[in-house]
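User: Need the bound-state model for nicotinamide-adenine-dinucleotide:
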Amino acid sequence: MKIVITGGMGFVGSSLINKLDLDMNEIFIIDNFSTNVSKTLDRCELINIDLSDKSQLHTINIGSADIMIHLAGPSSGPASAKDPDGTIDISNKITFNVLRVCEQLSIKRLLFASSMAVYGNPSKLPVDEKSICKPISYYGIAKLSSEYIIQAFCKSSNLEYSIIRLFNIYGPGQDLTRMDQGLVSIYLSMLLNDKSFVIKGKLDRVRDLIHIDDVLNSIIKVMFSNAGVNQIINVCNGSPVTIDELAKILIKYFENYSYKDIIQEEGSPDDILKIYGNNDKLSKIIGYKPIYDIETGVKDFVSWSKNQIR
Ligand SMILES: NC(=O)c1ccc[n+]([C@@H]2O[C@H](COP(=O)([O-])OP(=O)(O)OC[C@H]3O[C@@H](n4cnc5c(N)ncnc54)[C@H](O)[C@@H]3O)[C@@H](O)[C@H]2O)c1
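Assistant: Bound-state model below.
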């Protein structure tokens, strides 16, 4: 298979490439290196362009391809809050341009990484794919608008889509120097670096935290499944975890810290209060069952992160 991965230098993209069988698949990465990228991905062709710029698309000369996995774009909630119009403008432009590239390369299947942010503050939990989408952040609005653009485009073309709504991902490979994206990774970075353990927002917030391996297994299975064609699918762990519970689990691995060291600061108004997902649809489509729960997942992430600084 010839697979094009936009945002392939990022956390999810580079982890996915490490998991794909490179003897069976030819991988093309489209990325503009806008995040702090230090990794080298051997055996992949790298196309360094800004996907929001239509005039650069003609430089993608790779003949045809089979699958497009679209991960590129603004991925930080706080950065989007600082630049709302830029986020929505760039995100929509990238989505249209990715659809143009799909046409250009005669791609048959597109998988798009949307987000749980499209749901906003749900009135009923857990959220399933039929729950009302009422994003409260510009990041969520941008994701929902990209979903609509993809669905409208695919109605009048042969392109098939799978839209996956990713919940909070954590795990090995996540950039621990990046403090504007991630949740577990931001807290872990503070503890690893002996910084103050600052939690912005309430401790009783609820999240659905999913380990990167569970995400990657889902992406790989969804992109090859017939049942996933033209579907929107939650990719989540399915279990609620409060920020308080997460903090307690993390602290267990750092003897210099105790619960009373947590400094709670005011959160952001566009931060969702309580959300977790229903993954029945994903289970039905790919037989999904998460490998990691929050205890085993955090243990794995902490052990990987401690090895990084050794
Ligand atoms: N990580 C999560 O918890 C999470 C949760 C929900 C949704 N998502 C979505 O999944 C996708 C992947 O997430 P991630 O954590 O790997 O993000 P990431 O920021 O690590 O990776 C995004 C990649 O896109 C590239 N990129 C950004 N703008 C670009 C442009 N204009 N042209 C070309 N490349 C560009 C960046 O250089 C980066 O390599 C994102 O779309 C994100 O919004 C992630």
